[in-house]
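Supplementary Methods S3. Input chains for the assembly prediction are listed below.
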Amino acid sequence: MAGNTNVSVSVIKRLPRYYRFLGELKKSGIVRISSGELSKRMGFTASQIRQDLNCFGGFGQQGYGYNVEQLYREIGKILGVDNNIKAILIGAGNLGKAIATHMSFEQRGFNLIGIFDKNEALAGQLVRNIPIRHISGMYNFCRDNSPVVAVLCIPSENAKDIIEELIPLGIKGFWNFSHYDIANNYPDVAVENVHLSDSLMMLSYRINNLK
Amino acid sequence: MAGNTNVSVSVIKRLPRYYRFLGELKKSGIVRISSGELSKRMGFTASQIRQDLNCFGGFGQQGYGYNVEQLYREIGKILGVDNNIKAILIGAGNLGKAIATHMSFEQRGFNLIGIFDKNEALAGQLVRNIPIRHISGMYNFCRDNSPVVAVLCIPSENAKDIIEELIPLGIKGFWNFSHYDIANNYPDVAVENVHLSDSLMMLSYRINNLK
DNA sequence: AGTAGTTTGTCAATAATATAACAATAAAAA
DNA sequence: TTTTTATTGTTATATTATTGACAAACTACT
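Predicted structure tokens for the full assembly:
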């Protein structure tokens, strides 16, 4: 049964992983795959895989399994990898520059069109062929170019103000690397908090608690 | 009731967030806090907060609440922020360098002692005052310095080999930024996969599905 | 000291998520 | 063509996580 309403967060979190594995299968020339075989390779149960995929449509066929190419395309469509969402990045420090350079924005449905920093000294410097602009030009830039997503690589002190400046300018999504927790009480705004420090602390916890 | 056995992953994931909020409360001079007040600030239910904290010990007091300073210290201890776990970083590209420079390893219980890359041209370059070494020196370096954690900022193609070289050298934890999924079938090894691309794709999904 | 008001720790109830089971159906083999 | 085998979609069950409820216990006030 198709229809992507009310899909739980747990399912959505697994989608990129399916996409990644299917991409690899495709690359290695595998044409069809069963939920059982996928289960072995990915470490999810076959039951879960079938149930996950069925949230979006009956992509498989009894007695055959799933067509790798088709399933890859379908999940890509669900994840919107063919979109071309305009994005800006705020904060061109070490992390900001690395994210700008390192991420394959285009392959994930995004188009990075502007980079901003409060440090005037950085202005004009090119990152991924995009000039860093002083933050004071952000307002006009957004008005003129209508980006939809902002990548935040800024100190947490500045986060709240930047967010509340950007939302009225039409930003609908934040990819947040700052330590600030973006409350999800802004209507119609999507947020992905990355919180690298949290991840590092969890690793610390796990190492301390190895059997 | 104390004892940190069988604490669920869901709880552990929230610990760094508690730690972060308590740090802010401490900074702003707040001495005590109730689960109800924390609930309002963090967006978890008071019941969940009390239950989470009780996995590790009865840190609160009826009629009073929790002492901010004490709770901060306790959670820090649980997360091991006062440890000094020796870590190496493999892959000094954009992302690797940024992670090395940007992260407060010491504040999270780690001590970054070595950086490696397969690119000979980078050898000798200083990042955070640590010289980049050629990957060929990794074996001896590990034997001599016994790092416990490896931060992987390498392409997925190289991941499996590096991991299987490092485990016999005594690496007990991986902070993995590569696209490779580290299977958790290595006994006594802790893994934190970051998967930035997955996070970006989830943002894409969410933007496409805003009401 | 006694009492009223808080707030925890914990148990019970509910909700969410994952797994197992299986009939329906298609592919492959006989 | 018929039978066997494979594998899905889907319902039922089990497990895990979250929320609600409340007695016990402490604080703070009178």
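Residues 1, 34-36, 46, 50-51, 53-54, 58, 60-66 of chain A lie near DNA strand D (CB under 10 Å from a C1'). Chain A has a mean pLDDT of 95.
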